[in-house]
Design brief:
The protein is of the alpha/beta class and about 350 residues long. It contains 11 helices and 13 strands. Belongs to the NAD(P)-dependent epimerase/dehydratase family.
């Protein structure tokens, strides 16, 4: 079975991708420094797939440890690189932390594989589009000036990867530009596990519904959208995980577009924050305590993706809708209440 390295593999998207890799016949190997995840997630993954994945705890910013790992694991054929700091607000407060973590980890990995054939899938973001000129946004849309250091790390990382792929023929690289991952595995054994106050909408919704949070604040209802709240392309995390498997498979057979490519990973549909709340209330039967507050600085008004290229060339499309996203997130929140992690 081909071994795929999953950096940040105990995190939210990483853990779901580990499960989907295993389901697709791969052997996932995890590196994580547990700075934004919990070691117990390994046990949760084992409940789903029946085995505990191979796990290495260290920081990818430690170049000597990365080199040592690569030398001791010559049978790794692919890398899915999630490991990065990812909170937009924190990145504004601590830009140097974000530039250090997100660039050194990436560069150390690429350096360690110089001269070795490797398939590399990078966790990028629709944040590179900023406020798009036209919707749905395609992969050929201009990359706008980033509104946060986090967003800037994604833009620059894409440039690093493209230039590396152009300079060396041993790297085959795909960058996946995610929209807004939500939901949890159908087993309710893994899901989004924020440390501290959630930065994303859905865990804040579920934590409010279950009583962990007093109320949810909707940041602005006076935007130029049908109901005044921001619009996003929400994608189920299991669909997103499967996109990574599709990307690895495309790299293995040879991407006709060359050794660097980008794909949007979303549903192609936009849902407003208020529509997401209504969908959650419908699927869970819970009335949500929310208030409308002032706009939040840096928020994009509306964005959703054109996913035609992913369907035609990656051979992937999202299968799960907003109801499954909300129901699975709620099932995970209820699981956590009975089975606390962390």
């Amino acid at each position: 079975m081909r071994k795929i390295l999953v950096t940040g593999g105990t995190g939210y998207i990483g853990s779901h991708t580990v499960v989907e890799l295993y389901n697709a016949g791969y052997t996932p190997v995890i590196i994580d420094n547990l700075s934004n995840s919990n070691i117990q997630i390994l046990n949760q993954i084992e409940k789903i797939i029946g085995i505990k994945p191979e796990f290495h705890e260290f920081d990818l910013c430690d170049e000597s440890k990365v080199i040592d790992f690569v030398q001791k694991n010559p049978d790794i054929t692919g890398i899915i690189h999630f490991a990065a700091s990812k909170a937009v607000g924190e990145s504004v407060e601590k830009p140097l932390k974000y530039y250090h973590n997100n660039f050194f980890s990436l560069i150390n990995l690429l350096n360690a594989y110089q001269g070795k054939k490797i398939n590399f899938v990078f966790s990028s973001s629709c944040t590179v589009y900023g406020e798009p000129d036209t919707l749905p946004v395609t992969e050929s849309a201009p990359v706008k000036k980033a509104t946060s250091p986090y967003g800037n790390t994604k833009q620059i990382a894409e440039e690093i990867l493209e230039e590396t792929a152009n300079a060396y023929d041993n790297y085959n690289i795909i960058a996946l530009r995610y929209f807004n991952p939500v939901g949890a595995h159908a087993s309710a054994c893994i899901g989004e596990l924020p440390i501290g106050v959630p930065q994303n909408l859905l865990p804040f919704i579920t934590q409010t519904a279950i009583g962990k949070r007093e109320k949810l604040t909707v940041f602005g209802n006076d935007y130029d959208t049908p109901d005044g709240s921001c619009v996003r392309d929400f994608i189920h995390v299991v669909d997103l995980a499967k996109a990574h498997v599709a990307a690895i498979k495309l790299l293995e057979k040879g991407n006709p577009n060359g050794n660097y490519d980008i794909f949007n990973v979303g549903t192609g549909n936009g849902y407003s924050v208020l529509e997401a709340i209504a969908a959650f209330e419908k699927s869970s039967g819970q009335k949500l305590n929310y208030v409308v507050g002032p706009r939040r600085e840096g928020d994009i008004i509306k964005v959703w993706g054109d996913v035609t290229k992913s369907a035609n060339q990656l051979g992937w499309k999202a299968e799960l809708g907003i109801d499954e996203m909300m129901a699975s997130a709620w099932a995970w929140e209820k699981y956590l209440k009975e089975n606390p992690i962390g």
